[in-house]
Automatic annotation (TrEMBL):
Name this protein carries in UniProt: Copper-(Or silver)-translocating P-type ATPase/heavy metal-(Cd/Co/Hg/Pb/Zn)-translocating P-type ATPase,TIGR01512
Keyword field: ATP-binding, Cell membrane, Membrane, Metal-binding, Nucleotide-binding, Transmembrane, Transmembrane helix
Source organism of the structure: Sanguibacter gelidistatuariae
GO MF: ATP binding; ATP hydrolysis activity; ATPase-coupled monoatomic cation transmembrane transporter activity; cadmium ion transmembrane transporter activity; metal ion binding
Entry keyword Manganese: no
Location, primary (coarse class): membrane
Protein family per UniProt: Belongs to the cation transport ATPase (P-type) (TC 3.A.3) family. Type IB subfamily.
Compartmental location: Cell membrane
Gene Ontology, cellular component aspect: plasma membrane
Amino acid sequence: GTPLAVLAAIGRAASNGAFIKGGTHLEALSSVDTVIFDKTGTLTEGAPQVVAVHPAPGTTEDQVLIAAATAEMYSEHPLGKAIVAQAQARRLPLGLPESFDYEPGRGLSAHVDGRLVQIGNTTLVPGARQSADSPTLASATAVHVATDGAFMGTIFLADTVRASACQCVADLRSMGLRVVMLTGDSHVTGRAVAAEVGIENVRTDLLPSDKLAAVDAERAAGHKVAMVGDGVNDAPALAHATVGIAMGSGTEVARQSADIVLISSDLADLTHAVRVARRARRIVM
Ligand code: ADP
Ligand code: MG
C-alpha cells in the first residue's frame, strides 16, 4: 500500500491548494531539478484586455473588432474571450461564425458570412505589419486580423503577471531548481514578461509540438522536469514531463493531462508542494 507519510503529504499539499493525483507524482515532484513554465495563463493571469486597435488604411477599429469578435465567438482562448468582451463593451453588432478552426499556438480561422477570417500571429496572418510603435505596447500581445487574405489590422492585448509569480520563481531558484519559460507568444512579449518575473531562460514563438520537443529534450539531457501550464497548447508537454502541473483556472484538457492541479492557480502552492514532496521523500526513503 501507499506509505502513510506519502498519504499525509498528499493531504498536506491538498489543503494548500495542490491536488496531487497519486503517490508516484509526489515522488516525481520531489526529484525535479527543472521547472518549465508556460507564459499566458500560467505566469500571467491569462485575462488579457484589449489596450489598442490599429486598423489598416481604409478600415476602422470597429470593423477589425467586429470581424475578429464574430470569429472568436466560441473561442475558449483568453485572447479570443478578451476580443469578444471588448467588442461587446463597444456594443458592436456581432454575429456567429459558420465554422471555426482553432490552430493551437497560432490563432484561429473562421468563416463569417462566407468569408475567411483569420486571427493570430504572423505565422497565421503573414501579411501583417507588426506595429508596436509605442513603448507601452511592447509587452502587449499583437493579434493580427485578415479577411479573405486581406490584412485588416492589429489588436493589442495586455495581460497582468500573477501576483505570486515573482516570489515563486525566486523561491524555486533558492531551492536549487532551474527555471525556464516557454511561450507561443512573440519574442518581444515573451522577453518582457520573463524579465518581469526574473526568468532568463526563455524560448518564444513555440507551437505546441515545440513545447513538447523542449520537454523531451530536457529529459533526454537527464533532467527531471516539472511542466506548469494551462492551455490546450500545453497538454502534450504536460503529459511528457516528469510531472505535469496544471493551473486550476486552465482548460479541461490541461487539467486532465496533468498529474497535479493547482486548484486556485496560486503559484505559491507550487512552491509549497515541492517542499512537502521533498520532505516526504526524506521520511520514506
Ligand atoms: P502561450 O504559449 O503563451 O500560452 P498560445 O500558444 O496560446 O500562448 O498562443 C500563442 C500565440 O498564438 C498568441 O500570442 C497569439 O498570437 C496566437 N493565438 C493563439 N490563439 C489565439 C486566438 N484564439 N485568437 C488570436 N490569437 C491567438
Ligand atoms: Mg497558456
